[in-house]
Amino acid sequence: MAERIAITGVGQTYHKSKRKDVNAPELVTEAVEAALKDAQLTMKDIDFVVSGSFEMADGQYLPDMWILPEFGGVGKPGLKLQNAGTTGGVAAGAAFNYAASGMFNNVLCVTWQKMDEGQGAFGRGGGGLSEYWQSQIPMSPITNFARRTFAYLHNSGCTEEHFAITRVKQDQCALKNPYAQLKLNTTVEKVMESMALVWPIRYLHMCPSTAGAAAFIVSPENQAKKVTRKPVWVEDWFCAHVGGAFTMAEDPTLSTLRHGCEVVYKRNGITNVLKDIQAFEVYEPCSPAELRWMEEVGVCEDWTAWKLMEQGKVGIDKEIPFNPSGGVTATNPIGATPVIRIIEAALQIRDDAGEHQVPQTVNRALATAYGGQGENVIFLLRKSL
Amino acid sequence: MTDKAVKPVVIEADSISTFQVTVGATGTKFLVEIRDNKRIMGIKCSSCGKVYVPPRSHCPTCCVKMSEWVELSGKGTLTTYTVVRYKEPYQPKEPPIIYGVIQLDGADTGIYGILGEVEPDKVKIGMRFEPVFKDEREGSLLDIDHFRPSS
């Protein structure tokens, strides 16, 4: 029987576009040390290590072999996982499962990406494309979102201005997050004037490339209660890795997010999303995606999110606390990005998010990982079980 | 059912990218000392006392940050080696190449190096070696052109 598990410590780097002052192992160690400090543990207490990055984006082959020794991961049992955007999502899920097995006291999950070293190698396919039927007509992440966003414009009746309004909302949140990378203090006009990369996706809509790392420690119930007074309970997680089948269907804006959320909501008795969940950290790789993701997560009806954004109902202290951290359009060290979502959701539950803390009590938070052509991993975290 | 008369279709799918790797402040000091001063430096753990060459920022067993630099003579003892007799484009020298692991005097770890000025069949584990630096150095481990037998 699985143990109840809780996150006992979280840590992340101050994310930047370039970190020439440190090598990859040193960058990763910053996040590990922060998580250990948060849990008031040392590496001696860690008895399992799950690690992961999107290797192709860094150009680093089997990086765990030479990164783990830097923070004392030598000789400990562990598992390395690699995906594209969902890397941190599957790494976190694996860490949760290892903790739930009851075989380990303190499981460390650490993920990273040092994108100042790669040369955009993953741009060819965007990850997850069929080598036979898709990758010869390659859709990079930008092209992929351009086709979705065009369909969203067509189906919802919104205008390009709504994407810019969304970007400004994301930026206003990021300005309050000390760890966020892009803090532009931008305006709707500036976003709409920024260069069109692949219409309707503009330069300021798209997430940046980031050098950063993120880590957390998760433990079974008995150990978690010994370690911290503020355990963040892991209620559920679900991985939906069949993006191509969903995204290429008749509605090209769909991802597996809707399917994944339906599964975890049903399993956990969530019937009124906005009432039952008080904070959302949903992996949105570009501004327009956030609108569709709001609908897929279930905070509003299909094709209506842009109206809520226009009415100013989305934000840290608004009706819909969606991505209070500023989200992925502000910060995206790919492999670590899903773990940052989990960390931010955990900080909201602990009431430790500081300036970007949601004012109402957060009893339950949703975090997600997005990857490739529409894959998603969904996490539910709780203040108490 | 596969029609055996039809040749299977194979799609060419290559993806070539180049990368840069930041070595960090600790690694930079190590390589700059080699490049500018022909000096091999180790770094010492304040907790367990081990000296690491090449250096790293944290001791992998104690997980403490290291900052005490130790200058080494460069001389050391061969702990193992192998001889590569085939040719690949990525190899830094023409074969036969003798790749050795040398524990430098004063260090607790081994460093990879190319052995030179010695015939492959004359190399023995336990032999003493010293570094020979390139005249033109650019801040890389290959600034040590090779290790040659020494006293």
Which CATH top level class of the domain at 5-120 and 209-227 in chain A fits?
A: Alpha Beta
The CATH homologous superfamily of the domain at 5-120 and 209-227 in chain A? Thiolase/Chalcone synthase
Order of helices and strands of chain B: HEEEEEEEE
Q: List the chains of the largest interface with their residue counts.
A: A-B, 33 and 22 residues
* Radius of gyration of CA atoms of chain A, rounded to a whole number: 19 Å
Number of strands of chain A: 11
Order of strands across the main sheet of chain B: 6-5-4-7-8
Broad shape of chain B:
extended
Mean pLDDT of chain A: 92
Strand content of chain B: 25-35%
Task: Give a short account of the largest sheet of chain B.
Answer: 5 strands, antiparallel
Uncertain runs of chain A are none
Q: Quote the average pLDDT of chain B.
A: 92
Radius of gyration of chain B: 21 Å
Percent helix of chain B, as a range, is under 10%
Regions of chain B with pLDDT < 50 over 5+ consecutive residues?
A: none
Helix fraction of chain A?
A: 25-40%
Which oligomeric form is depicted? heterodimer
Counted by DSSP, the helix tally of chain B is: 1
Written as H for each helix and E for each strand, in order along the chain, the element string of chain A is EHEHHEHEHHHEEEHEHHHEHHHEE
> Could you tell me the number of beta strands of chain B?
8
Please give the structural blueprint:
The complex is a heterodimer of chains A (385) and B (151).
Chain A: E1 5-12, H1 24-39, E2 48-52, H2 55-58, H3 64-67, E3 78-81, H4 87-100, E4 107-114, H5 141-156, H6 160-174, H7 188-193, E5 196-198, E6 201-202, E7 211-220, H8 221-227, E8 232-240, H9 243-247, H10 257-267, H11 273-276, E9 279-281, H12 287-297, H13 305-310, H14 337-350, E10 364-371, E11 375-382
Parallel strand pairs in A: 2-3, 2-4, 9-10
Antiparallel strand pairs in A: 1-7, 1-8, 4-7, 5-6, 8-11, 10-11
Helix pairs in contact in A: 4-14, 6-12, 10-12
Chain B: H1 24-37, E1 40-44, E2 51-52, E3 68-72, E4 76-84, E5 97-104, E6 110-115, E7 128-133, E8 144-149
Antiparallel strand pairs in B: 1-2, 1-3, 4-5, 4-7, 5-6, 7-8
